[in-house]
Amino acid sequence: MSKTVFRKGWIRALKNSSLPAGSRLTAVAEAKRQKRLSPSKKRIYQISYAKGIRAFWRRQLIKQQGRRDVSVIIPALNEALTIDKVLREIKRLKPLEIIVVCNGTTDRTALIAASHGCKVISYEQPLGHDIGRSVGAAEAKGSTLLFLDGDISVYAEDLLPFIRSIEKGADLALNYIDPLLPPSAKRDTISTMKEWLNSSLQRPELGTASMTAIPHALRRSYLEVIGSESLSVPPKAQAMMIRAGAKTVLANCVDIIKTNRLREHNGSKGMPNVVEELIIGDHIEAVAWLQANSGVDDGNRSSEPYAFDLSSGSLNIEALPITSLSRSRWAELIQGAHPRTEEELAAADGLYLGGEAYVESSLPPLTVLPIELSLIINAGLETMSDQLVPLQTPTVVKASILDSLNKGQGFSLIRLGDGELLTLAQETVLSTEEVRNAGGHFLEYAGLNLPDLQVRDALATAVMHADVIGIPSKRSATFQGLFHRIAYYYSWPLHSMRFTSSIINYQLAEVTDLYPFLLNSYRTLLLGNRMHDLNILLAEQGFSQIQGNIGVNGAASIDSVCEKTNSYNFDVTLISAGIAAPLICNRLREQGKIAIDFGHMADELIRGAIRL
What we know:
Layout: H1 2-17, H2 27-33, H3 39-63, E1 68-76, H4 83-91, E2 95-103, H5 109-115, E3 119-123, H6 131-139, E4 144-147, H7 156-167, E5 172-175, H8 189-200, E6 216-219, H9 223-226, H10 234-243, E7 248-252, H11 274-292, H12 327-335, H13 342-362, H14 373-383, E8 391-392, H15 394-407, E9 411-415, H16 418-425, H17 432-439, H18 441-446, H19 453-465, E10 468-471, H20 482-490, E11 499-501, H21 504-511, H22 514-521, E12 524-527, H23 531-540, E13 546-550, H24 558-565, E14 572-575, H25 580-590, E15 594-597, H26 601-606
Helix pairs in contact: 1-3, 2-3, 3-7, 8-11, 10-11, 12-13, 15-21, 16-17, 16-19, 19-25
């Protein structure tokens, strides 16, 4: 029976493949029509139908002579793991050119693309979501533009219908994924926004089909109408094309839902989805554009390209800002003059994207909030005052350590710096590859070789068992900002834990006399690769309670280091060992010792920058 079902699906697919693009049934939709089939047989039918569709288009590929007048445009940001597979499929189409826009890429993406003969356009910093499409389109020469992503590989057979649709007279060919989605009442916000836009365009039959999603193709001549810069806001570009009379068709149903690789900035456990918020904002902007142009006759309306720089109304590709296209807008409208230095440009980006733009994109459709940004932020902070996490002062931390000494109890003071946070981020809020790209040689210096999920899990356990944890208090754009995401991921009970500043190791020396007191009054063991030099220095300064020192060779040496400590009689240990430090602190705490993550204090003491 299974073979019969497979054959029926295959034959039906070949018949339907010859229908016009808008009438061609999809694998999922066709499978749903087979109400008499069991779930397992429906799946067989669905698979055979999909393979039948591809078989039809594979024949068209084989028949193809010479190159197609097609430019394939792929924005890419650190896609070294997937770009090779993506390009191999595209090359089967024999396009005129493949343009890869590498923006902010730090891995081998550009090299891999170049090895495939692609035209590579590189920018040192990320341009922003979808802006790579504008850049690539401005450089394209083909009469048909096919847009893809660098992290989603699509069969050439599935891409060919988009190209053929344009070749046969369509101006815009979209991906129709409605059969893959749940009923409208259960759909996500983005799908709802796509339907809303198409309904506003008087094209409800398009459903959720959108230029936001790939694959899609368009006729290059339409860039003269909407401007290549408009492609950076795909829903608005779609609205502009359809309002200008573009013939828009549903070319194929390509399942990109399962294949779309989740990125950290696309949302993680307990955190907002930044890309989702951006896409929603783009759709609101598109509908707002429609309303602003609703009273103008199509035949007399001049095109209105998306204005990145409101002073000029167009995008200068050669002068693209390296971080964000918001900078000129903010400088012109708010500051009254263009910033001159890169630092000022970055500050303008931050003010706009992290403030006014975020508020604007968060508002319900067709509303404004006529309140100054600072007042909005203050009001939000007031409503979340019960979520504030207190940080203990150095004096309080010192008192806790001395209290544990008097009671003969173990105590661990650990700190979460860049190395620890990147370690905890492995396969939780970042992929291992993203951690490797971010950390570079720094992680090896800190004592970690990636991937190491065992160390990650041990570090998470150490955080839960530590008496006091030093954490970053700044919200600057560094690795330290990972703490908030990691805390959400692990669901740490923040209000029942004790925290202090991540620079508590320095503050204890600046504000209290804890270190001299311990070194003079309690047997102290020094752990770390530079502790031999520190041992000599402290002995010369008259501290007589130091029992010795043990080197630490990364996280892999923790067991041997802890075993060596059994040879010493000590009460307190100061540990300067990178990522291994909090793990050792946790072990020694269980043995009733006072364990302090000393960090770079050892280096500062040795070079004379700090004196006890």
